[in-house]
Amino acid sequence: MPYHKFKCSECIPEREKHAVVKGSGEDITSALPLGYLNTIPGSISERGCAYCGAKHVIGTPMKDVIHMSHGPVGCTYDTWQTKRYISDNDNFQLKYTYATDMKEKHIIFGAEKLLKQNIIEAFKAFPSIKRMTLYQTCASALIGDDINAIAAEVMEEMPEVDIFVCNSPGFGGPSQSGGHHKINIAWINQKVGNVEPKITSDYVINYVGEYNIQGDQEVMVDYFKKMGIQVLSTFTGNGSYDDLRSMHRAHLNVLECARSAEYICNELKVRYGTPRLDIDGFGFEPMSASLRKVGLFFGIEDRAQAIIDEETAKWKPELEWYKERLKGKKVCLWPGGSKLWHWAHVIHDEMGLEVVSVYTKFGHQGDMEKGISRCEEGTLAIDDPNELEGLEAMEMLKPDIIFTGKRPGEVAKKIRVPYLNAHAYHNGPWKGYEGWVRFARDIYNAIYSPIHQLSLIDISKDEIPTETKFLTQKMISDMNLSEEVTSSKDLREYTGKYDIISELRGKTYPDFPAQKKLSAV
Prior knowledge:
The structure is a single chain. By secondary structure, this protein is of the alpha/beta class. The chain folds into four domains: 141 residues, 3-Layer(aba) Sandwich (Rossmann fold), CATH 3.40.50; 104 residues, Nitrogenase molybdenum iron protein domain (Rossmann fold), CATH 3.40.50.1980; 133 residues, Rossmann fold (3-Layer(aba) Sandwich), CATH 3.40.50; 51 residues, no CATH class. It is built from 23 helices and 14 strands. The strands form three sheets. The protein has a six-stranded mixed β-sheet, with helices on both faces. A four-stranded parallel β-sheet has the order 3-2-4-5, sandwiched between helices. The protein has a four-stranded parallel β-sheet with strand order 7-6-8-9, sandwiched between helices. Strand 8, helix 11 and strand 9 form a beta-alpha-beta unit. Helix 1 packs across helix 8, helix 5 crosses helix 7 and helix 12 packs antiparallel against helix 13. The chain starts with 18 loop residues before the first strand and ends in a 16-residue tail after the last helix. 46% of the residues are buried.
């Protein structure tokens, strides 16, 4: 077993088995780190808790809902507005966050009265909203507040409202993944089957494990609608509370994120016989295969193929342009759960990037198995790294970019490694054909950013260019200034000849904003 021991974690010998390097000829049986275990004391994990996984990942994307946390205000504040779960009701669920704001006195004397008061006040403050999700936290769970009983009292007194209770305190699992499981099962136990929907198509699906990050879901739903498919509910991006109560009437559960939402799909199969079909909306080939699978299930493959042909013809040339310029760039793929294996192979195959490391903070063994199996030899795979291990890995691997969350991403920027926010995106959506090109564009812009290139200058010894137009000087001196440059494509052909930044740090900058005349720059 090719375990990797970080120097910064030598004082925690247990950490050695949580990082491996995939060697020559090795498969997942010999290159799999330990994962989804309780955090080792002293390792200073950056994981989220089970409450975070329930509320922040699964619950909050529901759009027409008051999301109330029963606990200290810090719990709900930490899970507010950190992802771009947009909705078509003016992003109500992103604008507001609610907490009972438990204090020390409530820990001693109980906070059930406080909870009931807060629930009623919230409904009165937003009279158009009649639905609520109620989340347990560590503080209220430890003192034994019966939030189910309080929710039942309020619904009896206010029959027009409906409340969903999620008992997922922070200590409810090794990581936020434990919260994914709890809210999945709680939803199907409490709410599914309580509403009968209007069926308008012969092909009806639930789109599960999709959270509409910067509009990802809308891209996919548009494809389904073009195929004549009715999307009964989305679990839970831009999802309506009452639509999600009717999940039992779908003909098929189309699952995107298996790490966060396979549990409810499996239960729907057991209880209602609804089949599950896993898809992947990232990348041209995975996207095409996914549409074909859905089309095959309903016998409408021709409709799927029409979309594939149209979108591929429209966007593939632009993707190839980026691939040529991203080929060989090294990336640390540190996104978390399912994106670990959704992206590992396809960013290599379709963008030319070399994945030098993968990690997950809350993924299970299955996530690592799929991710590592899709990576090249020499890839460093890490389970639940801390900040120091992440820094050490970057110093060792010297990636050109990392895909990760905001916290480790900001750390990377301090050592001059650009990052893209794998959780909330930079300029999404990234799903679908156009979205995949948008992702490639964001990668390109991050790596070749002039500002990033300037950050590589060591002001103690490097010459600092002071001419404001220094980026264009070499181009202008070697070109006919009277020649018209009429398009971005024309300009790329010119600028692609020059390694302007290479004089500073061995980097290249093969693109420049289009102008009608280069001489006007």
